[in-house]
Description:
This protein is α+β, with helices and mostly antiparallel strands. It has 5 helices and 8 strands, in the order E-E-H-H-H-E-E-E-H-E-H-E-E. Helix 1 crosses helix 3. The protein is globular and about 50 Å long. The model is unreliable at 195-224 (pLDDT under 50).
Amino acid sequence: xxTTFPDVTISTDRLVLRAFDAEDVTALxxxxxxxxxxxxxxxxxxxxxxxxxxxxxxxxxxxRTEGRGIVFAxxxxxxxxxxxxxxLQNTNWRTRSTEVGYVTAPWARGEGYASESVxxxxxxxxxxxxxxxxxxxxxxDNTASQQVAQKIGCISEGxxxxxxxxxxxxxxxxxxxxxxxxxxxxxxxxxxEDPDGYNGHDGYGYGLGTQVDASGYAVGADWS
Length: 224
């Protein structure tokens, strides 16, 4: 049984989804210090150049080579500017299921890039990789991320109560951890059979998981 994803590049009309490399470090660090990404995810804050370098050159690639999933850097086709991340994680090779997380750079929101890139990965996952389930989880108040799930045709399956921690910013600029519920969404191959099931939308970020790898990234449900 195959237990790693192939090293692939996925293209859409506007985007290229590819592996990270060292040239992405500066843009990645800038993107990940956005306040919305800090609020909804578990990435380090502040997100340093060293954090970005470790993710772009080592940790993101280990997700694929060690069989946990695969990480795509999402770039504009014409400009090659980094606009986001799509991360498949917590992959179960026996049940052919995995979880997706996503984040969009602040300068790229409102263009439908999150929906376009996640949908492209879902189509590749089901049609080329023979997977049967894609899951994502969104914080209860993260409506932008929930809209992405809805736009690509995900079905809401229920709520995990008190299952995640988000960060809220205080007047002095510091951050406070707050517990929240997670909404569980899923997509299965037959959900993509409707050609009218997608129209573009964009969101702030991933969903959220529970396990954290050595670099501080959540590698549970939605990429945090």
